[in-house]
Amino acid sequence: MTKSSLGDEQVARYLRDHPEFFGAHPELLASISVPHRHGGKAISLHERQLEVLREKHRALEMKLAELIRTGQENDAIADKLLRWTRQLLLAPDAERLPAAVIDGMHGAFGVPHVALRLWGLREAYRGLACAAPVEVDAITLANSMKQPYCGPNADFQAASWLPQGGATTRSTALIALRKGAEPTAFGMLVLGSSDPGRFQMNMGTAFLERIADIASAALSRLVE
After folding, report:
1. Contact predicate 166/160, CB 8 Å
2. Which of 14, 98, 154, 190 could form a disulfide with 115 if both were Cys (CB 3.0 to 4.6 A apart)?
């Protein structure tokens, strides 16, 4: 086979299939030079290999740091979730549960704007603040939700339950409350923030779903 008949892919395939080649010809590592990827003088193949390895090492370090940061954030949220659940379990009376839910959102999770509405309550709890009248559209929305909504305050009726009627709220999370797997909701928890980036449409909802499960289990004691 002549030199002219060798293509780049054939050379690359040969070197992949014969990793011992440079071991048998160590002098080539020192004699072969390749252009520096960012311009400038040529460097030896050995130096180029070291450069590639350093770049891969830096990329792996950055990925590991990101994984550690995400893990730490998730641990912190899980700890807050545990402390909030404990507060709900320690509530001495069922009528104090709505306030405990709201206080936990403010205190444990640092959510500035919180509103809670429940419907279909037992007679003994119909005087609570969370039992204020709820519009049909809001109930219909809660029944249709399969998972929490996160995103901009798109003039949802439920957003008007927030402080100042939601006038200063730029992003919201809407969380429907249900008894177990029942298709109909008995309430909605609304979280809001003046920060447009606090609740984004592309954010994960796993922890919000856990909040929905825990709040639903606690507040179901108030529902018929």
Report:
1. yes
2. 190
Of the candidates 42, 91, 105, 127, which has an alpha carbon nearest to the alpha carbon of residue 219?
91
* pTM (two decimals): 0.70
Which residue in the block uniquely carries the two structure tokens 């054939």? 10
pLDDT tens profile 145-175: 999 999 999 888 999 999 999 999 999 999 9
Contacts of 139 (CB under 8 A, 6+ apart): 119, 185
Contact between 187 and 219 (Cβ < 8 Å): yes
In contact, 77 and 201? CB cutoff 8 Å: no
Q: Give CA separation, 164 vs 105, 156, 219, in Å.
A: 18, 14, 25
Parts of the chain belonging to CATH 3.30.450.40: 91-222
Domain 91-222 superfamily per CATH: GAF domain (3.30.450.40)
Task: Give the residue carrying structure tokens 């402080």.
Answer: 163
